[in-house]
Amino acid sequence: MSAYDQNNIFAKILRGEIPNDTVYEDDHVLAFNDIAPQAPIHILVIPKGAYVSIDDFGANASADEIKAFHAAIAKIIEQKNLKTDGFRVISNTGRHGGQEVPHYHAHILAGKKLGPMLSA
Ligand code: 5GP
User: How many domains is the chain partitioned into structurally?
Assistant: First the structure.
């Protein structure tokens, strides 16, 4: 795994250098609307700690950070009323996963029937 790049775009958002449309925030987590939404609801959930990917986060984050991350997703699902119709959570990782931003993030996608998991 590559070292964490302090200049990735989400690190800049966390430092307040780039604005974001915040949906949820607590001590460990920030969630904001994706700049190029792929569904009517497209929210990015990121830990405030410097983790490259889901496996980096799972291996190296504290129990409090891991709990806060999943609790934040649950709060957003509740807040946006997504339980009834459902939603999808994706974490693209590395080159084959198509990860563009090397700071761990989960995409929450919802608001329409999302179709097959993979198109190819
Ligand atoms: P990835 O491909 O790494 O899983 O997803 C990166 C996501 O970040 C993309 O969906 C992209 O639209 C989003 N994104 C990239 N730059 C920005 C930005 O400056 N602000 C916001 N809100 N989203 C961004």
Answer: 1
